[in-house]
Amino acid sequence: MIGGVFIYNHKGEVMVSRVYRDNITRTTVDAFKVSVIHARQAVRSPVTIIARTSYFHTRQGSVWIVACTKQNVNAALVFEVLNKMVQVLEQYFGSITEESVKNNFVLIYELLDEILDYGYPQKTDSGILKTYITQQGVRSQSTEEQKQITSQVTGQIGWRREGIKYRRNELFLDVLESVNLLMSPQGQALSAHVSGRVVMKSYLSGMPECKFGMNDKLVIDKQAKPSTPEAQNLESQLSKRQGGGVNRSVAIDDCTFHQCVKLSKFESERSISFIPPDGEFELMRYRTTKDITLPFRVIPLVRLSTQNHVEIKVTLKSLFKAALTAQKVEVRIPIPPNTSGVKIITLRGKAKYKTGENTIVWRLRNMQGQRQSELTAEVELLPTTDTSKTKQTARVPISMNFEVPFACSGLKVRYLKVFEPKLNYSDHDVVKWVRYISKSGLYETRSHSNY
């Protein structure tokens, strides 16, 4: 793996040198200084190979942080270690400068010994390192703290410390989605996908274990029944609440999880089991492309009544339930660059022509579901012989911005359970909050045009 880590100043002087392998010598250190730092030509690549030795470097101002090795290693892994190393150093003494490195070189040696062991990455989380390496390099003295350090370093829950206590146990879960759409003038979705995140804020005492389930297609549509009695009970309760009908499932194309999630249980039971970090964190990311509920439909009509007169009519329909209300609705309608004047008529919201952007911006503070609003605009054009710009503007799609209080992918939280065997509280004592928010990503509709 990594044979050594060196920190140079802008002159090429070695301020910190930590060698992990015997094949790294002083000649190896000087080779990088002569060939890279003192080289007259600009450095084009962060990877340099000199005499069968690979050098990986990153610069922080006038400071060079270099990792070298004589083995064939994964370059992406080495740069990830260097970036984590930079983050840890910044957490301890702020910006990395020549002066800060000289003032904290003893601390840097201690950190390098913990981050890398014989050249292999060990601990790169600053939260864990700060529990037993303080800024002055003083280690924890009490036996209880030493036990906490050992469990965090060697155990599976390094992201959470023991002894956390709250008067009120609360758990917040936000399903945040970004809807992307490209629709044809005929109303056909050319491309549509949803990128989502599940963000949690946990204010729980002790070391609780949480179980989170969603209406994933592999759970709902799977012929085999849930493997645990608890999952079977929750399945029957969900069916009763929905009148015994068929549950809508979500086909998730791909997803990634936080390191606290136990992937083995997710593969066997399709339930997300984890011990949450304290505070806010991102539990998972996902992406889906099937059965997306589109919140809005834009129906544009562009007509060239005369050679210098264009009529634009845009109909905006909200397709979600009438009980819901969308916020921050904005429609951006492009118009030709040779526009001399615009007359806008709309009964809802406010519309304004922005000359610098050649766009009509139609804003509605809120809009309920199953509603329809219209905007008409009469555009006067300056006479011009260059029709290419006008035709090019006509091809620019109409875009939208919005925020709706539901998940457009159809994802639902089926259950959220908290178990804490050591402390004196149960799942019923935890206050839980679940919220769904979908925002517009690249939400565009192509328009008809005969000019």
The number of domains is: 3
| Share of β-strand residues | 35-45%
Radius of gyration: 30 Å
Q: Kindly name the structural category.
A: alpha+beta
Q: How would you portray this structure in words?
A:
This protein is an alpha+beta fold and 451 residues long. It folds into 3 domains: 4-154, 2-Layer Sandwich (Beta-Lactamase); 170-292 and 410-443, Mu homology domain, subdomain B (Immunoglobulin-like), CATH 2.60.40.1170; 296-405, Immunoglobulin-like, CATH 2.60.40. Helix content is 21%, strand content 40%. It contains 10 helices and 23 strands. A 9-stranded mixed β-sheet has the order 11-13-9-8-23-21-16-19-18, with no helix packed on it. Strands 2-1-5-4-3 form a 5-stranded antiparallel β-sheet. A 4-stranded antiparallel β-sheet has the order 14-15-20-17, with no helix packed on it. A hairpin with a 2-residue loop joins strand 3 and strand 4 (53-60). The N and C termini lie far apart (64 Å). Residues 137-144, 220-227 and 238-246 have low confidence and may be disordered.
